[in-house]
Amino acid sequence: MSGARPVVIAAAVTAFDDRGGLDLAGCRSLFAALGGHDDLDAVFVAGTTGEFVSLADHERLDVIETALDVLGSDRVIAHVGSASAHQARELAARAGKLGATRLAAVTPYYSATSPAQAHEYFAAVRDGAGDAEVFAYLFPDRTGVHLTPDQVAGIVTATGMDGVKVSIPGVDYVRELVALVPPGVSVLSGNDGLLEAVLDAGGAGVVSGVYQVAAEAFHAQLTALASGDDDSRRAAQRAVDAAVSTFGPHLTLLKLGLVRRGMLLSARCRIPAAPPAAALVADAERLLDSWSRAS
User: Fold this and answer.
1) Is there a domain that residue 123 lies in?
2) Mean pLDDT, the chain, as a whole number?
3) Do residues 22 and 55 touch, judged by C-beta distance below 8 A?
4) What's residue 294's pLDDT?
5) Which domain does 12 fall in, by range?
6) Binding residues for pyruvate
7) How high is the pLDDT of residue 3?
8) Separation between Cα atoms, residue 239 and residue 20, nearest integer Å
9) What residues sit in the active site (predicted)?
10) Which of 13, 94, 183, 247 is most buried, taking the most CB atoms under 10 A from its CB?
């Protein structure tokens, strides 16, 4: 495992009211709560967990501006990815005018995209971003864009990306990519239950949607990793596993958990999200109760 401090970034949900309207006050409250965690490096806003595909451009920029106002530019990664290079470039430029200095862009989606077209896309994002830090974001299961580590490393090198967020199961892809990208390029994983394995593979850390509802479990893991105590490390991993397996697959349940913790007023999602099974809700309630008793 690398001796560098692990990076943990929270992938924030977007708050909506009960009718599906954007709730910027709710977003502000959530960002403020996340900002109180000293072990959290940044908040990833308007991303997949933030239901960006359901947001109009002006809404995405409003969410980004709210996050910047609450957290400051160093602790915000603003997602500007789009189905087109034109839109992603424009969003990058407009986010920069709001003060964003850290950006991420998922590959194009919906249409088939070749490696050459992905290269053109990230070059456009880089152009719109100016001096901002930019992460390429890979999520082939959602976008349909499959790039090999060699292809991604070539794009990163040619376009001057500062990092890559990989939402691909396991850590093999992370390990291969780390070996290929230039020194100084950070590789992050969306597999938030695999922090230790990601670090062992050479990755910098994880981007976690579950962190916002289960900060205690991630804090315990970071503390255990720093201590080097194997028993503490294993116990912390079990707690993270429980949180990720319960809340991770279900956006609705994640939002219900945030409502239960007083961090959101409504669990409303804009994207189609099936209600979680009663047994899973009961598991979530038990976890939330255990964290409340421990605090």
Assistant:
1) yes
2) 96
3) yes
4) 74
5) 7-214
6) 49, 207
7) 61
8) 33
9) 137 (proton donor/acceptor), 165 (schiff-base intermediate with substrate)
10) 247
Active site residue 97: no
Which residue out of 121, 137, 173, 211 is catalytically annotated? Answer: 137
Among 121, 165, 173, 255, which one carries the catalytic annotation? Answer: 165
Each residue's pLDDT tens digit, 166-189: 999 999 999 999 999 999 999 999
Spatial CB neighbours of 213, under 8 Å, sequence gap ≥ 6: 243, 247, 254, 257, 258, 261, 263, 288
* Amino acid at the residue 257: G
Say if residues 125 and 94 touch (Cβ distance below 8 Å). no
211 in catalytic set: no
Q: For the segment 202-249, what is each residue's pLDDT rounded down to a tens digit?
A: 999 999 999 999 999 999 999 999 999 999 999 999 999 999 999 998
End-to-end CA distance of the chain: 30
pLDDT of residue 293: 78
Q: Is residue 108 part of a domain?
A: yes
Q: Of 106, 83, 85, 104, nearest to 95 (Cα)?
A: 104
* Residue 215 CB contacts under 8 Å (≥ 6 apart), including other chains: 37, 40
Query: Considering its fold, how many domains does the chain have in total?
Result: 1
Tokens of 45: 């806003």
Binding-site residues sit at 49, 207
Instruction: Establish if 250 belongs to a structural domain.
Output: no
DSSP 6-37: PEEEEE----B-TTS-B-HHHHHHHHHHHHT-
The fraction of the chain above a pLDDT of 90, given in percent, is 92
Alpha carbons within 13 angstroms on the beta-carbon side of residue 295 total 13
What would the two tokens of residue 258 be?
Answer: 């945030």
For residues 108 and 84, give the distance between their C-alpha atoms in angstroms, rounded to a whole number.
6
Query: Any idea what the CATH number is for the domain that residue 13 is in?
Result: 3.20.20.70
Question: CA nearest 70: which of 97, 43, 48, 110?
Answer: 43
Q: Which residues of the chain have pLDDT under 50?
A: none
In a domain, 222, yes or no: no
